[in-house]
Amino acid sequence: xxxxxxxxxxxxxxxxxxxxxxxxxxxxxxxxxxxxxxxxxxxxxxxxxxxxxxxxxxxxxxxxxxxxxxxxxxxxxxxxxxxxxxxxxxxxxxxxxxxxxxxxxxxxxxxxxxxxxxxxxxxxxxxxxxxxxxxxxxxxxxxxxxxxxxxxxxxxxxxxx
Length: 161
Prior knowledge:
It is a single chain. With about 160 residues, this protein is mostly helical. It is built from seven helices and no strands. It has helices at about 5-15, 25-35, 45-50, 55-80, 85-95, 100-120, 125-150. Helix 4 packs antiparallel against helix 5 (about 85-95) and helix 5 (about 85-95) packs antiparallel against helix 6 (about 100-120). The longest helix is centred in the C-terminal third of the chain and has 29 residues, at about 125-150.
């Protein structure tokens, strides 16, 4: 008599059930299974806040405002000194504690960052990036050298014609 334990052990050994074998590529099937098996989004608010609708709505508005402030600060830090991308991801993480759409965006962003990191480790891409950086540094050095040769150490707004 089969109680299902044999089937479970064969599934764990092969990584797939007999019904799904050959129905889809393993990468696509794994992504679909991971998406289908994820738990529904649950608010991280304390239970006493979740129990009252108006309090929970206020909590969500507060989380949204705090997350928005962190993301706006991160965007400002992209051009100002500071860890801009870290702040943007932190704001997304704050939003993801309360909003399912932010959790989806954060998951997509993590996947894209991982893909970019793997791509950057490719020797051909690394070689190209090193060459482009070197050429950029040589051009910047030539421009700085020309400026110093022409005007000396005077600042651009103090240069007399």
